[in-house]
Amino acid sequence: MKKFGLATQIFIGLALGIAVGAFFYGNETATAILQPIGDIFLHLIKMIVIPIVIAALVVSIAGVGDIKKLGKLGGKTILYFEIVTTIALAVGLLAANLFHPGTGIDMENLEKSNISTYEETAQSKEDVSIADQFVHIIPSNIFQSLAEGDLLAIVFFSVLLGIGVAVVGEKGKPVLSFFDGILEAMFWITNLVMKFAPFGVFALIGVNVAKFGIGSLVPLGKLVLVIYLTMFFFVFVILGFIAKIVGVNIFVMMRILKDELILAFTTASSEAVLPRLIEKMEKFGCPKAVTSLVIPTGYTFNLDGSSIYQAIAAVFIAQMYGIHLSLGEQITLLLVLMLTSKGMAGVTGASFVVVLTTLSSMGLPLEGMAFIAGIDRILDMLRTSVNVVGNALASIVMSKWEGGFDQEKAKRYTASLKKTHVA
Fold first, then answer.
1. Taking the mean position of all CA atoms in its chain, how far away is CA 140?
2. In the prediction, which pLDDT does 292 show?
3. Are 304 and 59 in contact (CB under 8 A)?
4. I want to staple 60 with a disulfide (CB 3.0 to 4.6 A). Which of 23, 67, 289, 408 is the partner?
5. Reduced to 3 states, what is the DSSP secondary structure of residue 315?
């Protein structure tokens, strides 16, 4: 498979996985054989993400040196994230109201999945106040946060460590060199892990098709179609417009991120592409200080695809049960989603838990989500890819905003990709 590029290898894995999964539909033995292969790949990805996030943040923050400049960059980044994710939520609500994916659904013919684990997580998160959520961002034990993969707490600690390294000056240089070395070593490990990606994709897709079958899409086909069309609209129109404002073509960006988008789509894991995304955007002309801060932070605050899914899913449930949501209630829904989506970063099945928590706070029936659970993987695939595009664009926007984008480097990198493609 060496003569094929990573994107082609992953696509072959995807096609074979669908075929094998369809052939062994309902066969638990086949699922049991494939599941460990998929789990190994996901474990490899999770193994490298946290060291990269810590090293990238420390290097970017300590590399800036000027704390005032860093504060301005951080403030602008959070402001941009908030604006774009709010637009994504609004677009999702608008699409749900225009196309009514939940109207006329016959719930008796829908397969219901067990969502008790998600409900327990949602309940535990709902019991936590907004003040407690802010307190939780600050780790009481960083090693415990590392073990639990609590990304918000890890980001907070890494930012402080980066500032500390910058402030102590000369004494901090060995620490900066250490983390810079860690970052480069982790990128090398990432490239090694990616060689296993086609096998991981094959297994993950195979397991899902074998479990649920392609037929599981039919009853909820309208919901899948509405979510997919809305996300395409958001990427090519909304993000495309933002890209045009900063002088970048969204289609050029998509070509640059081809491998990462296919990997994100097939694995439904944002973590799978985080290391390569940072590396790619640096090659495209974004300063390391910006990409290493913006992209890891975006993984907790800038999830555009997830925002669209959450808004449509919440209105879909109301429509399924014939519950009319007034304009005021939908504005409340938007505000609730703005809060809950930020508070769930790092939670397993975060988007699913966000919708459950939101439904509960709005007095809507939670059991409606049990009907979506069976096709959630199909929805997760595209929302993950949209999250990747949103965070890649955010790093370009921030680089341009800070006046650090290297236009010549971007041109050279784009030209090199064209040559590779022709070859």
1. 26
2. 83
3. no
4. 289
5. helix
Measured CA angle at 235 (ends 232, 241), to 5 deg: 130
Q: Give the whole-angstrom CA distance, residue 398 versus residue 73.
A: 8
d(CA 27, CA 210): 7
Q: Report whether 209 contacts 274 (CB < 8 A).
A: no
Task: Supply the pLDDT for residue 201.
Answer: 86
Q: Which class does domain 6-422 fall in? A: mainly alpha
> What is the reported pLDDT for 111?
62
Helix, strand, coil shares of the chain as percentages rounded to 5? 85, 0, 15
Residue written as token pair 């860690």: 182
Domain residue ranges of the chain, discontinuous segments joined by +: 6-422
> Cα separation of 180 and 58, whole Å?
9
Residues with Cβ within 8 Å of residue 349, at least 6 apart in sequence? 118, 121
Burial of 169 (0-12, 13-18, 19+ CB in 10 A): exposed
Q: Which two tokens mark 51?
A: 């060291």
Q: Which two tokens stand for residue 204?
A: 């993950």
Distance separating alpha carbons of residues 356 and 368, to the nearest angstrom: 9
Q: What's the confidence (pLDDT) of residue 402? A: 86
Q: Consecutive sets of 10 residues in the chain, 423 residues long: mean pLDDT of each? A: 71 87 81 87 85 86 72 87 94 95 74 61 57 76 86 84 88 91 89 88 84 69 92 96 94 90 84 84 89 85 90 91 89 85 59 80 81 81 92 94 88 78 48
Q: Which two tokens stand for residue 370?
A: 């049990």
d(CA 140, CA 158): 14
Tell me: the pLDDT tens digits for 266-324? Answer: 888 777 788 889 889 999 999 988 888 888 888 878 889 989 999 999 999 999 888 88
Judge whether 393 and 261 are in contact, CB under 8 Å.
no
CB-based contact 304:386 (threshold 8 Å)? yes
pLDDT of residue 352: 77
Distance CA 70, CA 194 (A): 32
How much is the pLDDT for 1? 47
Distances 207 to 20, 27, 198 between C-alpha atoms, Å: 9, 10, 14
> What is the C-alpha separation between 318 and 59, in angstroms, rounded?
46
Instruction: Find, among 7, 43, 346, 55, the residue nearest to 186 by Cα.
Output: 55
How many residues are given for the chain?
423
CA dist 292 and 159 (Å) reads: 11
CA–CA dist 132, 259 (Å, integer)? 39
